[in-house]
Amino acid sequence: MANGSQAISEDLQHGVSLIEKMDQHGRKNSERSQTVIRSTEDAIEAVESGKHTLTETKTAIEKKIHMPRDKSKNQQENLRNTPAESRPWPKRFLTLRTKQTCFP
């Protein structure tokens, strides 16, 4: 199992270095990148110390990474369920903004 956790640790460290390189090249969403880096570094420590299995580590990383998106999705749902007169923008704008469309 030690070889397996070492391989996982190396893969995670490689992921961190790739994210840091992307950050250096001026990628937007640097706050999100930093969250991913912190989560991945935490995962490296957990795997190396034997606290977590790979599945637990992967699940923990996914929860930390996707949490901000889930919150914004809930906020959109709340706005859709709010009466039109109390929304901060017209219903038409909200409808256009939330529809998925394809452009040729």
Structural class: mainly alpha
- Percentage of residues in helical conformation: over 70%
Radius of gyration: 20 Å
Please summarize the sheet with the most strands.
none
Number of domain units: 1
Order of helices and strands: HHHH
What would the average pLDDT be, to the nearest integer?
A: 66
Percent in strands: under 5%
Alpha plus pi helix count: 4
Task: Indicate the multimeric state.
Answer: single chain
Runs in which pLDDT lies below 50 for 5 or more consecutive residues are none
Query: Whole-Å distance between the termini?
Result: 51 Å
Q: Give the overall shape.
A: flat
List how many beta strands DSSP finds: 0
Organism: Bacillus safensis
Protein name: Methyl-accepting transducer domain-containing protein
Which tags fit this structure?
104 residues, Methyl-accepting transducer domain-containing protein, single chain, mainly alpha
Could you characterize what this model shows?
The protein has one domain (2-98). It contains 4 helices and no strands. It has helices spanning 2-24, 30-49, 54-80, 91-98. Helix 1 packs antiparallel against helix 2. The longest helix is centred in the middle third of the chain and has 27 residues, at 54-80. The radius of gyration is 20 Å and the shape is flat. The relative contact order is 0.09.
